[in-house]
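Hello forum,

I keep getting stuck at the same step: I have a sequence, I want structure tokens, and every attempt I make locally crashes halfway through. Rather than fight my setup again tonight, could one of you with a working pipeline run this one for me? It's a single chain of 332 residues.
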Amino acid sequence: MTLRPLSPGRYVRTLLVWAGVWVVVGVAAVLLGSQNIWAWDRWDQQRDVLQMRLYSVLTASVVGAALALAGLAFQALLRNPLASPYVLGVSGGGTLAVILASLFVGITLQPLFGCFGALATIVFVYTVAQRRGRIEPYTLLLSGVILNAFYAAAIMLASAQVPPAKRADIAYYMMGSISTLYVRWPLVAMVGVLAAAAAVVLAFLAKGFNLVALGEDTAGAMGIPVHRLRMATFVLASLVTGAAVSLAGPIGFVGLICPHILRMLLGPDHRRLVPASFFFGAAFLVLADLASRIVEGATGTVVPVGVLTAMCGGPFFVYLLRTRWRRTAEVQ
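Reply #2:
Ran it on my machine without issues. Output:
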């Protein structure tokens, strides 16, 4: 892999272009929706709708940014195109922990439980997949699949023990949604700060990701502390995933789709991919949420944003299986 030198000007241009994409998409999502807000004469009604849409846009932005960054980090570190928080079971671990928190300790500790569940999951799959200091990517992915099945069974068991009203809440949360039913600005701010901090840290680790793509032995020979890089990346990606899940539920495939689209557009240089993923992941989920609201207005049927991303991610996952997986296996 040959990378061109990245000048400060080129880096800033990448940052500004993708930040501009997010701003344009965000403004469109605030102004558009299931109803034409300009048809109302009363300003207080328009203001209330605009505030709710602004909340939805910012919530979708921080969740999308967090999941896209986590997916990029996992794929870079594992050198596997199929790695993502959803596939590795990290989202599932956070989801189960959040549901247990809501049932037994209340919503206040949901973010803490979500982060703990995500971290516990990555520790488990890392331990299972590690052999003599190396990670076996196929074992890691299979461990994630198995854990996802276990978490799904545990969630169904927990749902069966609660009243029907609570069971409906769990089912809706499991679909993944940018809900305005409960406005939680402090949690949105917390996830946003965590995602921004993750973007900064990953930007400093981007050179290490580029060298790891050549092989862990090569990266180590060039002075990259691979083990520390691996630990820092796993912890950081799991934390942002757990925080995002506590806010919007298990929205799948964002961390799988966004990094691959950006690699097609920008190439393999993680120095550009990290800032681009932050803003493109935000814009992607804002667009998905806007599509969800438009469908709801046209049909009267609520379509959670997690359903839309899964409908996009399923075919995309099959595409990766048919193309990238074979090439990855040949390289390894």
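The first strand starts at residue 130 and ends at 131. If your local run keeps crashing, start a new thread with the error log.
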